[in-house]
Specification:
The chain is of the alpha+beta class. It has 7 helices and 4 strands, in the order ααβααβαβααβ. Strands 1-2-4-3 form a 4-stranded antiparallel sheet, sandwiched between helices. The longest helix is centred in the middle third of the chain and has 28 residues. The protein is globular. The chain binds flavin mononucleotide. Flavin mononucleotide binds next to strand 3.
């Protein structure tokens, strides 16, 4: 490939990376199945520790599934925040917002990690490192998905809630035992535009 083509590709990719925002409101247009599969394929071209591909995805497009998940997560949120002693009106607003966000997304993709193919160690430190590598790999896959979604005119947002209730998510969706839900991605055609700043490069980097 010639230098000029490299430069054009790099500029295009940089702009896709820079212009992607977390989109939380979607219109009703359904996302074609082929497009969802394409996003998942892009996710799976991410690098992964030992190339073990520990990412797992569960795709929800049916209203009943999204509703069941949102109801169950909302109920748990209410219980947890009540135990924290939070204001009941705040809690109900939070529960309603979470329900609307999840059920308002045409597609929900649960992001999970499985350790089933990762190395096993007898000691906790190396076991923890292996777990960290698996979750790092999963996050890289999710970023591929977010970027291709944006490049394809879709909007998406990573939502952390399943990380707080992994067993509940597994039970409600009957996910395999070895899956560890890490988060979910809401996906659809965007009904909002967002801007978000970043801190200067120099504030996060040391050149040695
Ligand atoms: C690990 C992780 C967890 C996140 N959890 C949530 C979440 O629970 N709800 C939400 O609305 N956004 C969530 N986000 C999106 C961030 O708020 C968003 O990426 C950040 O504010 C920067 O905005 P941008 O993605 O539009 O650049 C999460 C992002 C990451 C990477």
């Amino acid at each position: 490939m010639c230098d000029q083509m490299h430069q054009t590709n790099a500029t295009l990719l940089f702009n896709i990376i820079k212009n992607r925002r977390s989109i939380r409101r979607y219109n009703n247009k359904p996302v074609p199945q082929e497009l969802i599969l394409r996003l998942l394929e892009a996710a799976m071209w991410a690098p992964s520790a030992h190339n073990r591909q520990p990412w797992r995805f569960a795709v929800l497009t049916q209203t009943t599934d999204k509703d069941r998940l949102a109801q169950a997560m909302g109920a748990r949120l209410r219980v947890d925040r009540t135990a924290d002693g939070d204001d009941p009106d705040d809690i109900e607003r939070d529960v309603a917002r979470s329900y609307a966000r999840l059920t308002g997304a045409p597609v929900i993709i649960i992001i999970g990690t499985s350790l089933i193919d990762m190395d096993r160690y007898p000691d906790p430190q190396r076991s923890r490192n292996e777990w960290t590598m698996a979750t790092q790999s999963t996050a890289m896959a999710a970023q591929n998905l977010l970027l291709l979604a944006h490049a394809g005119g879709l909007g998406a947002c990573w939502v952390c809630a399943p990380l707080f209730v992994p067993e509940l998510v597994k039970e409600v969706l009957a996910l395999p035992d070895d899956w560890e839900p890490q988060g979910l991605i809401t996906l659809g055609y965007p009904a909002q535009e967002r801007t978000k700043p970043r801190e200067p490069v120099q504030s996060k980097v040391i050149f040695l």
